[in-house]
């Protein structure tokens, strides 16, 4: 279930697929026609970009938004992928460059604006298309909110191209629209992917490390007889933990890429066949594991990103029966992960994006309310409080953080949503750094308004407003903090917000820059 993981890493720089991506990509690589419904922000474009790299010839992408196409083409070119767009906004050189790449047969992805479908048809017919990808496919729906008459030409183009494999994507999930898309874009019914990301049978829980060995032993011992995975951040640690659990009378085995193949196979087989084995593993364990009745997943250390977290906990409870998770996290983990990112040879843009993905996970760790809402929200899915996470079970003590949040939000707003956390906090605390004075931020009304609170206290507030969805961190813009629509009512004083007390008190001394 991990098609083209190598490309995901080497070209796109991601370490895990997002929910749904792996299945959709696998189907596309198997040459199936696909209609995929994914929430906005869920990562649709990767689902056709990655297969495009895997196969011969050109992938044609029809997309309605010129600005979006341009962004994608630029991003792909930065990754070293031959991509181009033909839109009404092209300048002549750009069009020349695209034509030339098509002529030389090197263009992998051609983005085409709907209004160009007719005029570009002869050229495309000559070149041939190995995959037709239709973004925002609901635009073909005459009754939909976003109807684009030009989208109706896609069917004809498809026929003229000899009916190439087609993959259509949309975030609109209602049944009528789906049926209309299927009828208008495909010759035969496509395979439909419509799966919410939620795995409601998996209980979510986080705990700050506080005697982590004990915490792990308690958790696993209480579940003796059930199969589970304990993920640890290093090979050595998997062996140490397996030893400690065995010492406590539990059938635990280590698993990591450094073990010889025979041992690895043996351990995997025992986990698969025997009841109640605890696998202490690095993330090398999981890809090929197909055990439906894994009852729990413990992260002995914080995972790398929201995506990795989701993927790893998702190995529990595939049979649909209740399953549990526990993620332990501590200051050292955060430091380690940050160091790994900083010291990797990746370019700076990618590092910033990696930091942002880690930050999202930290915000989940210190969330003030339902974890599932935050997790699903990260992948673009709205939901109600789940009743199946530790925070729904036992809501944490909260205080009225409206004023603090307003200050932070207004500092973000007044500095034009262009800065990261450190600078925003410096402004709040009235630190006349060079950056602040140069930008004139020391003249802002909000400058120094929060000087009576420590840096760590403000970091806590920042994590919380992030967890509440009032801001997002723009990975594409150097990790700048930006306001979301949800921030407005708070800024206008129409909505009060509550902040978790423990995250500000306990960690006020922390020296990390957690979000
Ligand atoms: P949409 O579904 O709205 O078209 P995009 O394709 O634009 O979403 O993806 C949204 C964001 O998610 C992009 O910034 C993209 O780089 C990021 N993304 C996509 N797939 C992954 C992944 N597997 N891991 C991490 N980030 C990803
Ligand atoms: Zn919940």
UniProtKB/TrEMBL annotation:
Top EC group: isomerase
Cofactor entry: Mg(2+); Zn(2+)
GO cellular component, one term: bacterial nucleoid
EC id: 5.6.2.4
BP GO annotations: DNA recombination; DNA repair; DNA replication; SOS response
Domain Helicase ATP-binding: 25-191
Catalytic reactions on record: Couples ATP hydrolysis with the unwinding of duplex DNA by translocating in the 3'-5' direction
Gene Ontology MF annotations: 3'-5' DNA helicase activity; ATP binding; DNA binding; four-way junction helicase activity; hydrolase activity; metal ion binding
Record's protein name: DNA helicase RecQ
Organism expressing this protein natively: Pikeienuella piscinae
Range of the intact protein held here: 1 to 515 of 684
